[in-house]
Amino acid sequence: MGREGGNQEVKEAGDPESGLSRRQILQRIMGLGAAGAMAGAAGEVGLTSLLGMGCSHGQAGKGKTVVALTPDGKGVPGRRWIMVIDLSRCDGCGECMTACSKMHFVPPSRQWIKVLRMPGTGDEGAPFYFPQPCYHCDNPPCTKVCPVDATFKREDGIVLIDNERCIGCRFCMAACPYSARSFNWGAPENPPEAEARGYSPEWGYPRKTGTVEKCDFCPDMAAKGILPPCTSHCPMGAIYYGDENEGTVSNGAGETVNLRNLLRKGGAYRHMEELGTEPRVYYLPPRNPKYKAPDEAGGGA
Ligand code: SF4
Predict the structure, then answer these.
(1) What is the pLDDT of residue 60?
(2) Is 137 in the pocket of ligand 1 (CB under 6 A)?
């Protein structure tokens, strides 16, 4: 599907209240400049008032409420999905990446969850591995800069993208301090299975040219009580997923543990917490690794 082919959809998915097509919206935004948008539409005319739009997902904004193109935007009632990654268990095998990419038809050039090799710190420090999905931040900078509410935070904690609505401005990508988002520049290759299932923000495919994507915390699976593939396929049991309200998380090794104890005893922290983004992904530091060091015989990925 080329860019031109998508423009009809763009027009249809514009703002019905202002009568603007998505192309017109994009032109106006570009006229404002990315810096203004990144600053939260600071200045005399904010993006929200410019577009005559409000926020339909509980974000900041004072304009009129628009009908969301997404499902109700609330997610699974009563749930608050959360992830904990035990860095002392991650041996860098990459099974989480492989399983995630397979299930979401992610092209080989990108990953929704990356496994970074981190250098050791200090004389005692050893290198370790650092799986990094989208953090589904409770104070997400990405959603605040989207001029058309295409990316939004649900009440169950998950941050999603609606590619029926995304205009490809990429402000969200610039706003994310964790580089969690990717852009579909060219015509994506959607396998027949992806086309057959049809699009939903809850699984993010079939992909569309000129739209943004990222880890979605597998909300369709969570609603059925199924662990995401990154979690269920981790042979080390390093990734836990669960419901903060219920107070338990489970890993691929079949362990279900008390969330509060896991965080407290493991000395949990969140990545770049000082930014105030409030990630919903916690890390347990790589103390006493339960795998061979990368420079040991048989160790590393
Ligand atoms: Fe948004 Fe980035 Fe936080 Fe994900 S990690 S919610 S993309 S700011």
Answers:
(1) 32
(2) yes
